[in-house]
Amino acid sequence: MLKILKYSFYDLMRSRWSYVYFLFYLLLGIVLLFLNNDLSKAVITLMNVIIILVPLIGTIFGVMYYYNSREFTELLLAQPVKRSSIFLGQYFGVATSLAMSLIIGLGLPFAFYGIFNSSAIWDFSLLLITGGFLTFIFTALAFVIALSNENKIKGFGYAILLWLFMAVIYDGLFLMSLLYFEDYPLDKFSLFATMLNPVDLSRVLILLKLDISALLGYTGAVFQQFFGTSFGVILSFVMLVFWVVIPTFFIWRIAKRKDF
Amino acid sequence: MKNKFFILFLFVSLFSLKNLWSQTITVCATCPVKSIKEAVKQAAEGDSILVKKGVYKEANIKIDKGITLIGENLPTIDGQEKGEVITIGTDNVTIDGFKIINVGVSYTTDYAAVRVVNSKGFLIQNLELEKLFFGIYLQKSNDGKVLNNKVRGEAVTEFNSGNAVHLWYCKNVEVIGNDVQNVRDGIYLEFSDNITIKDNVSKNNIRYGLHFMFSNNNYVINNTFETNGAGIALMFSKFMQVENNIIQKNWGTAAYGLLLKEVNDANIKNNLFFENTVGITVEGSNRLEYTNNDFTSNGYALKVKGACYQNHVINNNFLYNSFDISYNGRINDNKFDNNFWSNYTGYDLNKNGIGDVPYRPVKLFSYIVNRTPETIILMRSLFIDIIDFSEKVSPVFTPDNLLDENPKMKRIDHDRN
């Protein structure tokens, strides 16, 4: 598995797209920092970018990579290699290289700007960690979709739909249910609903660390009380890990049974 | 002509006569008079007491004659936490240039560093108060001045701390140039009318920078309120002027710059609201004029909570606030006109400096949050941006007459000094 991971990783490292992705983040970081001059504001803008763009790129890239390397996969399948290690290797290769582009691309300008001497270091590292998690989660989901759909168009369609659901539609449903049940106490429900969606969870985790959390008022205080404790932090990271592990398990299971 | 000279002569002679009669008592460690209490006892109406530098361990100094108490080089009066330090019970008393420390803390009596009771024409200036409970406590006293005092408290909780300057049933008092920090309420007024509050700095107070209850016709001019629990709280008061103040950095889940509750006919003019969670919270307040203010980088610039009618918001700058206006209800009787909104995206074809498309300051999201506060957790989600945009294009939920017909294209330059 490690060999295939290494191969996929190096393959992607050589590809143009990871450089474009890397350069995009590098540029974004530089522009944000040197036009804005305010570290915590830059972190807020970055948050907006990360919770929208990282899942989108993870999904699209994952699906694309799977379909593009299909012939090579078939070649590999003819060799005496375990199936699960082929697909898991590919998945980890893609996700790691994407996460690396993100972390290095954003990390470099911030490091030069002097993030290590700043109090925003924790907000920033939380941003990168959630960004990394989101990459792993959405690439895994993309692989699951690609593995279960032979048809490329269908696969892309489902992948985009998945992103749309997580980033937009879920919040819409969430909002509707909050409005519909407004006569009931909703703190527990909103906590629960936030935990279920990795995009929302990342957004709330970062928001609570910023100054802007004071705007959240009473609800914010409930969330702060929950996420402020080590139990809350551990639970939310466990949730994120679950979001990585469960799709990965599905990759493994589908790959084992799949007929080529 | 002759007559006038005669009157002048009479006045001059009268004053010199008074000077001749009044005497100065000096207090110091090596003087014949060693304590302030002793000096007060010896003094007659109109006398001066000059206190030299040193530490005087005295509490409960009662001043019952119209005398002038002057400290030279800031002598210290140590109250040893025995209760009140100076109590003034008569007219025309001046206290100038002391450092007063260790006022007693009590849960039943409001001990103060200086208390003025039922008096007129008092002047309290250049004091430095530290380790205090209440600072300067004016009760049923009129026509006096509180000038240039410095108060540094150590307040941690509301229930065992006091206010720096406290006015109760007072009229025509000037509170000017004071610097109050780390107390409960910086300046507190209850049932007090015609008070001028000018050039004060009120910082880091755990409750309010300035607090009004049932006080009418007051002027609040050129003050700075910074990092308080809340900047100014105006409650149940009428005919107030709030001008040229800087209200900033009152940040926290329950913090705001200016709270208006049941306030009628007030003028809020030329103030700067900077980085407050809520710039102004208004509830049940009518006929207010908000003109020429700057609302910069607040969470909410203006939060209108209900029962507010005939208010005018004109010529203000709304710059980079998360929410410009929060409004509940669908009826609007307030007028928004000629403001500059940094979130305005319209155009100006005839180049007259006024946008051709009206601006709607209430976002759908702020309307939703008002209805169901829990929804705030969706802040900065992509979905919220999308519905805000669609509401902006065609308003359905927000009051359709709540709009600025003449939004300015450029930031308004206010003449603030």
The number of distinct helices of chain A, counting runs of at least 4 residues, comes to 11
Beta content of chain A: under 5%
Order of helices and strands of chain A: HHHHHHHHHHH
Q: Give a count of the beta strands of chain B, DSSP E runs of length 2 or more.
A: 39
Number of helices of chain B: 4
Poorly predicted spans of chain A: none
State the secondary-structure class of chain A: mainly alpha
Going across the major beta sheet of chain B, what is the strand order?
1-2-5-8-11-14-17-20-23-26-29-32-35-38
Domain module tally of chain A = 1
- Assess the beta-strand content of chain B as a share of residues: 25-35%
Helix content range of chain A: over 70%
For the terminal residues of chain A, how far apart are their CA atoms? 19 Å
Question: What global shape of chain B is seen?
Answer: elongated
Shape of chain A: globular
User: Which stretches of chain B are low in confidence, meaning pLDDT under 50 for 5 or more residues running?
Assistant: none
* Total beta strand runs of chain A: 0
Radius of gyration of chain B: 26 Å
Describe this structure in words.
- The complex is a heterodimer of chains A (260) and B (417).
- With 260 residues, chain A is an all-alpha fold.
- Chain A has one domain (2-257).
- Chain A has 11 helices and no strands.
- Helices cover 85% and strands 0% of the residues of chain A.
- With 417 residues, chain B is mainly beta.
- Chain B has a domain at 229-417.
- Chain B is 11% helix and 34% strand.
- In chain B, helix 2 links the parallel strand 1 and strand 2.
- Chain B is elongated.
- The chains are: A mainly alpha (260), B mainly beta (417).
- The interface between A and B is medium-sized, with 34 and 24 residues.
- Chain A: This is ABC transporter permease.
- Chain A: Keywords: Membrane, Transmembrane, Transmembrane helix.
- Chain A: It comes from Aequorivita xiaoshiensis.
